[in-house]
């Protein structure tokens, strides 16, 4: 009923638009930025985003430390958040290096107690027993099978708060206490307090006033980015201070905001979205 | 499920822009008349339109499932191939996403 009403109203409005003058009854919404780049989550599929960024960098002819001129803001979730950070700091060679070396570095490793799950030389029963123990919570520390410490150590080589941010970046995490998304951001030093206030107002209208949007903590940047990629079952939640200052558990932003389109549409007139799966019709 | 949510989010965003442009293109008096016909007040439509955003969307996505897998961080070959596909697709450009774009499975 609601859908049919909506369609009827839309059709009527279309007809009205066709036969009436084009003077706007509503004030146009002014957006501060021409274009935003949105990078979605998807684990190792994030290599696709890195390749795409490399092509954009080549097409734009920008060098290390120089921003992609087309984009006024970049937003990401999960692996997209990590890629987005490197875009925001224009670390083009680091972005390529990360994806070229991540397999050699074994940045994603099982916890010792689950090491045999992925080892095909282990017996089937051994592997099955570990999976059952994981699934039933029979073991200790069973929130995630992978050891986040290795990933955090790997990321530390790429995430450095002293690197100047040249493009504003926003990333999503999921607060498991509130079951709501939250957003962290970094902005270039050139962004004025007034520009930031206006941008945050626009973002809060888009994502909802109850959703926390706050600056990243220089001392916790690696953890705040890793939290965005803490896929449940794969990784333990990451403990960070919540908006209220109390410790909260955070997990993959993809749980609640895998493609943070709202950020892009709040700030820019055009949104470029990189998705990591084909259109449904493209699947076999 | 996540893919479904992504597709829905994009479709909703595009629909929102469509409505924004549609409402903007009609004089207030006509909007008030149409709203009244459907049981809404002009103030409701004005408040609704204030929530809308005029945005254009462009998408870059693979045509087929990527060689890498979500947890395949140790598979160097698949990661490299996935990286190359991203490079090639982006070099070809983002595609405009509109109300006719493929966003989801055919309902059963």
Observed structural traits:
heterodimer; A: 284 residues; alpha/beta; eight-stranded mixed β-sheet; two-stranded parallel sheet; 39% helix; 18% strand; B: 108 residues; mainly alpha; two-stranded antiparallel ribbon; 56% helix; 7% strand; elongated; disordered C terminus
Chart the SSEs and their pairings.
The complex is a heterodimer of chains A (284) and B (108).
Chain A: H1 2-19, E1 33-39, H2 47-60, E2 73-77, H3 79-88, H4 92-105, H5 124-136, E3 144-146, H6 148-156, E4 169-175, E5 180-186, H7 193-207, E6 213-215, H8 221-228, E7 233-235, E8 238-241, E9 247-252, H9 254-257, H10 261-267, E10 268-274
Parallel strand pairs in A: 1-2, 1-10, 2-4, 3-7, 5-6
Antiparallel strand pairs in A: 4-5, 4-9, 8-9
Helix pairs in contact in A: 2-4, 7-10
Chain B: H1 2-24, H2 28-37, H3 42-51, E1 56-60, H4 76-92, E2 95-97
Antiparallel strand pairs in B: 1-2
Give your account of this protein's structure.
The complex is a heterodimer of chains A (284) and B (108). With 284 residues, chain A is an alpha/beta fold. Chain A has helices at 2-19, 47-60, 79-88, 92-105, 124-136, 148-156, 193-207, 221-228, 254-257, 261-267; strands at 33-39, 73-77, 144-146, 169-175, 180-186, 213-215, 233-235, 238-241, 247-252, 268-274. In chain A, strands 1, 2, 4, 5, 6, 8, 9 and 10 form an 8-stranded mixed β-sheet that branches. In chain A, strands 3-7 form a two-stranded parallel ribbon. Chain A starts with a helix and ends in a 10-residue tail after the last strand. The relative contact order of chain A is 0.18. Chain B is mainly alpha-helical and 108 residues long. Chain B is 56% helix and 7% strand. Chain B is built from 4 helices and 2 strands; from the N terminus they run αααβαβ. In chain B, strands 1-2 form a two-stranded antiparallel ribbon. The radius of gyration of chain B is 20 Å and the shape is elongated. Chain B starts with a helix and ends in an 11-residue tail after the last strand. The chains are: A alpha/beta (284), B mainly alpha (108). At the A-B interface, α1, α2, α4, α10 and β10 of A face α1, α2, α3, β1 and α4 of B. β10 (268-274) of chain A pairs parallel with β1 of chain B.
């Amino acid at each position: 009923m609601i859908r049919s009403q909506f369609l009827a109203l839309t059709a009527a409005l279309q007809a009205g638009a066709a036969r009436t003058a084009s003077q706007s009854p509503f004030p146009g919404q002014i957006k501060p930025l021409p274009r935003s780049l949105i990078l979605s989550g998807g684990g190792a599929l994030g290599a696709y985003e890195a390749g795409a960024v490399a092509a954009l960098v080549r097409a734009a002819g920008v060098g290390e430390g120089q921003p992609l001129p087309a984009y006024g803001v970049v937003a990401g979730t999960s692996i997209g958040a990590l890629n987005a950070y490197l875009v925001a700091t224009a670390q083009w060679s680091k972005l390529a290096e990360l994806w070229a070396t991540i397999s050699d570095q074994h940045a994603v490793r099982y916890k010792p107690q689950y090491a045999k799950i992925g080892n095909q030389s282990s017996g089937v029963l051994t592997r099955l027993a570990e999976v059952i123990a994981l699934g039933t919570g029979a073991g200790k520390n069973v929130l995630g099978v992978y050891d986040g410490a290795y990933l955090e150590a790997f990321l530390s080589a790429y995430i450095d708060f002293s690197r100047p941010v040249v493009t504003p970046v926003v990333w999503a995490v999921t607060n498991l206490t509130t079951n709501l998304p939250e957003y962290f951001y970094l902005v270039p030093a050139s962004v004025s307090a007034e520009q930031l206030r206006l941008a945050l107002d626009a973002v809060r209208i888009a994502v909802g006033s109850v959703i926390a949007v706050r600056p990243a903590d220089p001392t916790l940047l690696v953890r705040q980015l890793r939290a965005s990629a803490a896929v449940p079952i794969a990784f333990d939640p990451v403990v960070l201070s919540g908006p209220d200052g109390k410790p909260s558990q955070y997990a993959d932003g993809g749980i609640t905001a895998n493609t943070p389109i709202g950020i892009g549409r709040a700030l820019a007139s055009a949104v470029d979205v990189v998705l990591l799966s084909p259109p449904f019709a493209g699947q076999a | 499920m996540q893919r479904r949510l992504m597709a829905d989010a994009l479709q909703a965003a595009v629909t929102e822009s469509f409505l924004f442009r549609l409402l903007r293109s009609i004089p207030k008096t006509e909007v008030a008349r149409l709203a009244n016909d459907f049981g809404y007040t002009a103030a409701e439509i004005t408040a609704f339109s204030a929530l809308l955003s005029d945005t254009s969307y462009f998408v870059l996505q693979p045509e087929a499932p990527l060689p890498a897998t979500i947890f395949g961080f140790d598979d160097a070959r698949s990661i490299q191939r996935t990286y190359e596909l991203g490079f090639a697709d982006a070099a070809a450009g983002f595609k405009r996403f509109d109300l006719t774009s493929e966003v989801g499975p055919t309902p059963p």
